[in-house]
Amino acid sequence: MVNEQIMIIEDDSELGRGLTTALKNDGKTVICVNTLKGAADQLLVFRPALILMDVNLPDGNGFDFLKVVKNDHPEIPVIMLTANDTDSDIVRGLDLGADDYITKPFSLSVLRARVNTQLRRNASRASEEFFEGDGYTFDFANMIFKKGEETFELSKTEQKILRILVANRGMTVKRNDLIDKVWTDGAEYVDENALSVSIKRLRDKLGAKENIKTVYGLGYSWKTEK
Fold first, then answer.
1. Using CA atoms, how far apart are residues 225 and 134, in angstroms rounded to an integer?
2. Which residue has the higher pLDDT, 209 or 86?
3. What total of structural domains would you count in the chain?
4. Residue numbers of the domain that contains 34
């Protein structure tokens, strides 16, 4: 089992020790800091699997730091810990990208369960970031796409299409579903020909005629090797 590293940002030293002990008892590595500066310094040297963060800290507002974390490291789940239980504070935190919001006081057993839920979800998301098979290696997180030793440059649209197809490999993804998931910029109308052109370019770049299949009248699929 992977030993997940968790960073706690909490200026209440007694609570910080309690959280650290509770999570270490679950077999996790825990780093506890009591300022936002300390948290920023830690992010320069290691990437935590999850952050537990108080909102009110001596050197700043946790909401502001949440924006920085989600902008620079959107893959890191963040659970906000706070005594501010008003709807507006909760909505603000969630709107800024918080993955969960726990108000004080709280049960340590409930907190551990919610931490583990976020870690499982993040592990599941991470598994979708990488594909290896059928002679290809696709690293979506680092935007590296290879067939054997040959590397390909893909546009953002091509990356989105490829990611959806390999995530649903062996199944047919309907044209309308692909359009809705790929062109998410709010455009009221997207010419269906744009999808056909993008599929052709992607297929040609990857040399994936045998893998990216057109299912006539329905959509497209990534066909895996038997």
1. 6
2. 209
3. 2
4. 5-127
